[in-house]
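Quality-control log, excerpt.
Job 1 of 2 completed; input and output follow.
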Amino acid sequence: MTKTSKNIENFVKNSEGKSQDHYNHVSKNIENFVSNSEGKSQDHYNHVSKNIENFVSNSEGKSQDHYNHVSKNIENFVSNSEGKSQDHYNHVSKNIENFVSNSEGKSQDHYNHVSKNIENFVSNSEGKSQDHYNHVSAK
């Protein structure tokens, strides 16, 4: 009876010890699980937050790039348009100058041509008159 009682006591004691160990082990596992879960949640939160920050930062950067690109294109367009307008103005002005210059030249040519014709006509007329005079006088 004493031996059996001792065995029962040891069994109970060991069972309680094992139960306590099991409880402690489970508790420790639960704590670790919670701790790890919280850590993973925090990591996930930080990772998502970082991704959102990067996304926003990249989006803003791309928007700025797009804005700068569009602005640059507008500046180039305006600059080119002004340049083309100036070229067109210069081209038209040059054409007008050339037209006036050519017109004046042609007018001068025409004047000189007419003057020359008049001089020749007068000269020829005088020559013919002289010839006629000489011809008449000779008779």
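Job 2 of 2 completed; input and output follow.
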Amino acid sequence: MHKYTLHAHDFTVQAASLTSEPDLTGSAQTPTVDDPSNPTRVIVYTPTGAAAALRIAQRHLTLVHARLAYNNPGSVNRTAADTVYAEARSRAEALTPEQRRDESLYALHSEDDALRMDALNDVMEERGELGA
């Protein structure tokens, strides 16, 4: 497992300044940003190399942007991914806990599916339904 640190500008990964170091913990960890409102650095953990780290980092920035657009309307210009997340989030909030649990078992086939699943997981986490 390696820890990759990537710089970001306007919610886009800057591949030119990628750094890598062995991760001392050896366990899988969630990608993180230094500032959700204006990320300048993304940290990704992956055993599969720099190309995977770039993809993971960009996907994470897309999710951070979508969450920011949803929770603070007007704070960022909305993108298509933000709309997908917002629609999925609204749909997930309207479901019962059992329906959300069933939805969480669906397979992911696209980036939009991944955003929809993130929205579903955000709602389930807020309502204490994960890990139950």
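Post-run check on job 2. Residues 50-71 form the longest helix (22 residues).
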